[in-house]
Amino acid sequence: MAEAHPVTRVNPQTFTATLRVWWPVIVASAGIITLNVTAIVVRLPIPCPLDSWESIIAADACRASVGLPVYTLGEVDHSTHIYGPLVTYVAALIFKFTGMSFLVTRLMSLSASVALIIGLSFIFLRKLPVPFLVAGIAMMTSVHLRSFGYFIQSRPDMEAFAIACLAIVFLYRGFERKRLAEYVLGVLLICVAYLFKQTAAVFCLVPFLSLPLRKLGFNARELVMCAAPPAAIVMLIFAIQILAPDVDHYMIDAVARFPIEYHRLASITIGFVGWMPIIPLALGVMIFTPNSVPLAESRLRWLIASCIVALPASLLSFAKAAAVANTLIPAWFTLLVLSVVLCANGCAAANAEFSRARWKSYAFAWLFTVAMVAGALGAPRDQLQVFSTAALGDQHYSQVVQYVSKLKGRVVSPDDPTIPIRALRQFGRSSPAEADATLSAQMPDYLVKEVQSADYVITVDYNPPQYRLVEVLPYWGFVPDSFGNTDMGPYRLWRKRR
User: CB count, 10 Å around CB of 141?
Assistant: First the structure.
């Protein structure tokens, strides 16, 4: 979101951030990074889909890789996910060389996450004193834990946000340095980010919001430049509506069916600050040391504008029915980086005071450490799943695929359609995708017909199941079969009664 040099210039020789004072911050940062890296290492190689969304994205990427349509209505062929199309088609391009691979889609998100942390650290943190540099990296890394593992999710949250941040970098450079080509590139990148995930579009407002923070007024040329990113997003939405109505159906219409739950909006608005205590700490620093917010720094203005955009957008997204913690990722990243910068600037401004009363520097170091740890861990019991191998299936996935590859006839698995795709190149519908498209607790008739017409059905025990197939399959003429008398854990094979 900024130029590649530091937000604040502090001479480490005169700064009180000595190891003797700030070692708790460094130790806590190392611990937070280690926890999150461990969680990634544990779950990255899991052989089956991590969840139903990974199954949907991988299945549709495989469809696209062999030239089959992805965006169709459920009653015509199948329903797809409600994210942007690029996550499917980028994965499909890679699948042409690798075949279907969950590792590919996970590494897409992980690569975006690592690039995001490196980029933001280089722009805003690299010349801060070491304790704040490592603290900033640790706090950004902790978003993986707080979002329940989204750094390796196949969903496109990290890709969309990383590209949106890159877009803001070019918008900033183009606007502040009057480089039209870079500004145009930023506008195009915002559109690309939108095509990964719709919520990335909110960052098109950052140039406009940066203007009043400058307190210098603005001219007509600057207003036109600020209007360009929103105008591009609006034109893109209308173009998709006209040229690709099925894509528009999933990106706009299907998403709009999920209502905003206002009681949830109220609770998350109140609770958000409690989730990240470093944010109110930074606000306190800003109040008591006004010099910690040098609005003359254009980079800092654009970071603040990004926070102003990201926070309400994230809270509103989280308030929608069925939304989860991934919707808060843009707010977490932007506010955490800003908080670390403000705390570092505040300590630099209070350096003389810390020198006179050394206990104050110790107290602030420990307060900063407690805020870091509390924000990074949240409720530890709730984060344990990030360190587990729980997924949509288990280690028997490859064995199930191998067994299914020997079956004769039509095989479907609405719980995990990647199984018949990998085994027999047979494509079928996904229960969670159909449920999201219809928002109905009842299985759609076209999915019922697909299951009833199959020779074999594979179910996966997971919690909670989208539709309880195991309860209705006996009434549809299916009987339990076995995988060659081998226990396959959560997988169940059903055969059509002959």
Answer: 22
Residue 345 pLDDT > 70, yes or no?
yes
CB 163 within 8 A of CB 59: no
| DSSP type of residue 16 | S
The first and second tokens of residue 229, run together, are 């990113």
Are the CB atoms for 190 and 198 separated by under 8 Å?
Answer: no
Q: What whole-number distance in Å separates Cα of residue 264 and Cα of residue 321?
A: 9
Check whether the bond before 464 is cis (ω within 30° of 0).
Answer: yes
Q: Is residue 159 within 8 Å of 196, Cβ to Cβ?
A: yes
Question: Which CA distances in Å does 442 have to 263, 438, 445, 446, 447?
Answer: 26, 9, 9, 11, 10
Half-sphere exposure of 225 (CA within 13 A, CB side): 27
Burial of 45 (C-beta count, 10 Å sphere; 0-12/13-18/19+): exposed
The predicted pLDDT at position 354 comes to: 65
User: Taking Cα atoms as reference points, which of 420, 469, 433 lies closest to residue 448?
Assistant: 469
Residues 226-247: tens digit of each pLDDT:
999 999 999 999 999 999 999 9
Q: If you search the block for the tokens 């995990």, which residue do you land on?
A: 416
Interaxial angle between packed helices 86-98 and 180-196, expressed in degrees from 0 to 180 and rounded to the nearest 10: 80
| Tokens found for residue 314 | 């994230």
Cα 108 to Cα 105: distance, rounded to the nearest angstrom: 5
**pLDDT tens digits for range 99-135:** 999 999 999 999 999 999 999 999 999 989 899 999 9
pTM recorded for the entire structure? 0.92
The structure tokens 């130790």 sit at: 27
Q: Which residues pair with 391 in a beta bridge?
A: 393
Task: Please tell me whether residue 89 adopts helix, strand or coil conformation.
Answer: helix
**C-alpha count within 13 angstroms, C-beta hemisphere, residue 83:** 26
Task: In whole angstroms, give the CA distance from residue 339 to residue 367.
Answer: 14
The region, left, alpha or beta by phi > 0 then psi within -120 to 50, assigned to residue 485 is left
Task: Give the count of beta carbons closer than 10 Å to the beta carbon of residue 325.
Answer: 19
| Residue tagged 């195009």 (tokens) | 188
Burial 251-288 (b: 16+ CB within 10 A, else e): beebbeeeeebeeeeeebeeebeebbbbbebbeebbee
56 pLDDT higher than 90: yes
CA 289 to chain centre: 34
Q: Which of 143-147, 275-279, 381-385, 482-486 holds the top average pLDDT?
A: 143-147
